[in-house]
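> example.struct
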């Protein structure tokens, strides 16, 4: 089997991880995409005791207990990732124990050496500005970032739908997510840095420049 590339995308909320993930998928093709936030939002819509608790936590801007995120994305990868397919893990790992679990899983899949951990680095102030001003389309659900030319949009650039703020982008929720990064996710950054397994990208550039820097670093 030819070696396939795999990516984890780490960064503060609002850093543009999802946008860069889409560009990576378009550039490399045949990548299985996983976003931890999407998995939790899907779970919150299920009809279970867990979903009710998850919905409350997400509304408050918090994160569920440590092992649940790992269980969700490992289940998705185990059941869906093909042998000749790479993956993008958007927004994970967010805790050191998740990074360690991922490493063990990658060893099992013989993918650790072909997995690149990308940090899209922006300041807390930049993240707060983006999160408090970004919008979502009521019609198609497209998330409109507060960067570059997207700041000027009055309606969705895909379907012309009405734009509104996300329900979980309250002042309290934003600060809770940013606090979590400063207290917990930064330890994941340090975990990969000490092993020389982190690619750090300046996220306070245009979307195109961020992506070009990623491609340069991968070469």
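> example.seq
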């Amino acid at each position: 089997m030819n070696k396939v590339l795999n990516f984890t995308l780490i960064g503060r909320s609002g850093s543009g991880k999802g946008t860069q993930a889409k560009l990576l998928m378009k550039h490399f093709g045949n990548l299985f995409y996983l976003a931890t936030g999407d998995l939790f939002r899907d779970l919150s819509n299920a009809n279970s005791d867990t979903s009710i608790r998850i919905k409350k936590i997400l509304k408050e801007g918090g994160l569920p207990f440590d092992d649940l995120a790992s269980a969700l994305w490992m289940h998705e990868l185990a059941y869906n990732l093909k042998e000749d397919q790479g993956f993008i893990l958007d927004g994970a790992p967010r805790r050191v124990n998740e990074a360690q679990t991922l490493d063990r899983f990658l060893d099992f899949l013989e993918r650790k050496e072909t997995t690149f951990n990308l940090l899209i680095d922006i300041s807390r102030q930049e993240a707060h500005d983006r999160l408090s001003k970004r919008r979502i389309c009521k019609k198609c659900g497209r998330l409109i970032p507060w960067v570059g030319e997207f700041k000027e949009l009055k309606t969705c650039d895909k379907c012309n739908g009405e734009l509104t703020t996300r329900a979980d982008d309250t002042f309290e929720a934003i600060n809770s997510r940013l606090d979590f990064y400063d207290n917990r996710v930064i330890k994941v950054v340090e975990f990969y840095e000490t092993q020389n397994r982190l690619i750090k990208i300046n996220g306070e550039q245009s979307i195109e420049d961020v992506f070009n820097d990623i491609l340069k670093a991968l070469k």
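> remarks
Residues 135 and 144 are 5 Å apart (CA to CA).
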